[in-house]
Design the sequence.
């Protein structure tokens, strides 16, 4: 067998393996109940409490409400802690409030955009402050909450940590540079942490949605691609055993494949940046949203859920 033949065989084998893996992933998304089923007692076996950051609105609130409906426990308790995750001195209070709780699920959802309208880095107003806020809220908050909650999960040998990223982290994304980079950190940190603690019985998964109708996305009208927060959360929870990363739905998985197939030079072109910025600006204007409503503001209290024990921030 010649070297050329060996190279062709190896190339063909690698191609088959790559496409085979993608096919398996797609099948898992289409039929999670068959390929990665959750036992009926899965959620109740995890623990008595769920901790959700950014639970005041949007995806975070939907997680808090949905986990309560799944009856993580029968106590019917909701504990709310007001915490501004852009600040540095909040974690002592958080740790004190959750000390000794049997926490089964941690959802690191809290996050902010550096600006209402996407723009180049140096065009962001109050840039130094926004850099600090985005890193604290999108990056540091996740790491610190894992640091607080993970030891108890390791000791009990069970638990789930869901770190909410974004589909935008899958591609180079100018005019969303700071936000996208913070979400890339979420993905890499989660992958590494899952490798470290999978053997301890802990699931650590990144959830990377595209369109979800929340204040952060300008309350887009739900359609085939854009979900309500509740719809997305219910869908994403079906894929808890589908691997260390998920888009949370079949639609967003397909959209992720399409987006990643776009040539990088197109995404990085000045014309793309110009028209995408124009599109977002017109959409925001049409919704007449203020910036305070647009971001997912940590610290706002969440209403009490009906069932389960949920600790939200």
Sequence:
């Amino acid at each position: 067998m010649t070297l050329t033949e060996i190279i062709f065989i190896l190339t063909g084998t690698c191609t088959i393996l790559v496409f085979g893996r993608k096919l398996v992933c797609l099948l898992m998304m289409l039929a999670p109940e068959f390929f990665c089923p959750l036992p009926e007692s899965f959620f109740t076996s995890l623990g008595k409490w769920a901790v959700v950051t950014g639970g005041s609105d949007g995806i975070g609130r939907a997680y808090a409400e949905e986990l309560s409906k799944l009856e993580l426990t029968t106590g019917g308790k909701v504990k709310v802690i007001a915490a501004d995750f852009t600040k540095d001195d909040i974690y002592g209070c958080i740790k004190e409030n959750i000390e000794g709780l049997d926490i089964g699920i941690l959802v690191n959802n809290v996050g902010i955009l550096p600006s209402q309208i996407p723009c180049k880095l140096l065009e962001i107003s109050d840039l130094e402050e926004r850099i600090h806020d985005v890193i604290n809220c999108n990056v540091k908050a996740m790491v610190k909450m894992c640091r607080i909650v993970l030891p108890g999960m390791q000791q009990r040998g069970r638990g789930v940590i869901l770190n909410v990223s974004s589909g935008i982290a899958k591609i180079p994304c100018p005019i969303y540079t700071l936000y996208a980079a913070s979400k890339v950190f979420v993905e890499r940190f989660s992958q590494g942490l899952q490798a470290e603690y999978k053997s301890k019985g802990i699931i650590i998964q990144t959830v990377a949605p595209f369109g979800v109708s929340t204040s952060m996305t300008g309350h887009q009208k739900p359609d085939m691609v854009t979900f309500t927060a509740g719809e997305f959360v219910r869908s994403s929870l079906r894929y808890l055993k589908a691997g260390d990363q998920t888009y949370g739905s079949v639609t967003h998985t397909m959209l992720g494949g399409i987006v990643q197939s776009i040539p990088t030079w197109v995404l990085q072109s000045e014309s793309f940046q110009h028209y995408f910025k124009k599109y977002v600006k017109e959409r925001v204007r049409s919704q007449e949203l203020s910036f305070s409503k647009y971001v997912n503001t940590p610290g706002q209290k969440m209403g009490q859920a009906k069932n389960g024990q949920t600790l939200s921030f």
